[in-house]
Amino acid sequence: MGGACLYGTGVDLLSLTRFASLLARSRASAAVSSPHARLGRSERLARRILCDEELADWQRLEARHDRVRWLACRWAAKEAAYKALSPPFQISWHDLMLRSASSGRPRLSLSASGTRGALGQFLPPGLRWHVSLSHDAGLVIAMVHLEQPGA
């Protein structure tokens, strides 16, 4: 019996300063007629990139600094996953979910909408997601490895 084989790898590096600037720009570019126009800039971006479960987790965070870093980690992890899945699969921000295990270790998986959608139907069965996140000195890095069980 063979071991697992590498299906894809993706890495994303994100500057927290640039990410905070993105949050600032998202407020300036929000259309007045937008249904989310009254929401704060980070709230609008959170709704754009987080699945429902992640959004509930994010809304429970209290400190602004923690919320920006937390959101940046999800952005970087999803960008890295996109790179690991490309080119055969196009994904939506809402297709993936990053949660923490009880140990605190990050877990990346398909969200409910990702499982129901085309991505969930066409990914190889048994695909394992491995994610590593780190943040220091104003940077966030995410690495995603996708592993397919061997034959």
From TrEMBL:
Source lineage: Eukaryota, Fungi, Dikarya, Basidiomycota, Ustilaginomycotina
Official protein name in the record: 4'-phosphopantetheinyl transferase
Top-rank taxon: Eukaryota
Domain 4'-phosphopantetheinyl transferase: 41-122
Gene source species: Tilletiopsis washingtonensis
Residue ranges that the Swiss-Prot or TrEMBL entry lists as coiled coil: none
Keywords noted in UniProt: Transferase
UniProt keyword annotation of DNA-binding present: no
Classification via InterPro entries: 4-PPantetheinyl_Trfase_dom, 4-PPantetheinyl_Trfase_dom_sf, ACPS
Entry's Gene Ontology BP terms: fatty acid biosynthetic process
Classification via Pfam families: ACPS
MF annotations from Gene Ontology: holo-[acyl-carrier-protein] synthase activity; magnesium ion binding
Entry annotated with the keyword Phosphoprotein: no
